[in-house]
Amino acid sequence: MKYQAILFDLDGVLCTTDRFHYEAWKQTAQEVRAPFDEQINQRLRGVSRMESLEIILEGSPLTLSGEEKLRLAEEKNDRYRALLSQLTPADMGEGVRDTLKRLRAAGLRLAVGSSSKNAGFILRQLQAEELFDAVCDGTQITHSKPDPEVFLKAAEQVETPPARCLVVEDASAGLEAARAGGMDCAILGDAEMPFAPTYHLDRLEELPGLIL
Ligand code: BG6
Ligand code: MG
User: Fold this and answer.
1) Which of 56, 121, 148, 178 has the most crowded CB, counting CB atoms within 10 A?
2) Closest residue (by CA) to atom 16 of ligand 1?
3) For the chain, what percentages of helix, strand and coil (3-state, to nearest 5) are there?
4) CB of 49 sitting under 6 A from ligand 1
5) Whole-structure pTM over 0.85, yes or no?
């Protein structure tokens, strides 16, 4: 087999938490009088919480102190966590669960590589923790995507050289991170990408057919 491990992004790949991020950031944008729409939201995919706030603040007439920025990020996260508590195992489709089980049964090691500091909470809500050999998330890294750190650490945790890893992503920051880490990348969905990924998927369920 070409790959020994698959490294999955979480938000937008294994579950659709994007709508919660959108709702929670929308209120922040209103507070700082910045515009917010789907296009701006796309730019927040894969990047860290504080970097996301900086992107929103690009459209704000206000100049905020570091302390005010931290408060805004914390309040956004409180709203986001309240929304996340609605997540149930049904929010990870049976098709996704079966795909993960099939890949693992074929001998592949599976890891999560997410910029989110809420990844542990999300995986618990989805009851999906036992589907993975390792979880590397925003609490373990100092540089978020497009830096390759999260994927390089995840690869290390599943004891696999980068060249034998495949990353599955939905965001351009993730595609760039995979390339910077020397890994192939499958892109799920139709977001615009700066260059062609190794594979393109309309649904995660297509993955075993491409690589097994
Ligand atoms: C990524 C999301 O998974 O996590 C980003 O795609 C988000 O949109 C980032 O900003 C950080 O998330 P959190 O949960 O730590 O605020
Ligand atoms: Mg994502």
Assistant:
1) 178
2) 49
3) 50, 15, 40
4) yes
5) yes
Question: Which residues are catalytically annotated?
Answer: 9, 11
Tokens found for residue 106:
């074929």
> Do 104 and 191 have their domain in common?
yes
Asked if residue 165 and residue 64 are part of one domain, the reply reads no
User: Which atom number of ligand 1 is nearest to the Cα of residue 117?
Assistant: 15
Same domain assignment for residues 124 and 169: yes
Going by the DSSP 8-state scheme, the letter that residue 15 receives in this structure is B
pLDDT at 128: 98
Domain CATH code at residue 22: 1.10.150.240
State which of 9, 17, 52, 187 you would mutate to test the pocket of ligand 1, scoring each by most atoms of that ligand within 8 A of its C-beta: 52
Q: Which residue's CA lies nearest to atom 8 of ligand 1?
A: 45
pLDDT tier at 156 (50, 70, 90 boundaries)?
A: very high
| Range 160-179 average pLDDT | 98
Q: What phi-psi label fits residue 46: left (phi over 0), alpha (psi between -120 and 50 degrees) or beta?
A: left
pLDDT confidence of residue 186: 98
> How far is the centre of ligand 2, averaged over its atoms, from the C-alpha of 29 (Å)?
21
Give the burial string for 6-31 (b: 16+ CB within 10 Å, else e). bbbbbbbbbbebbebbbebbbebbee
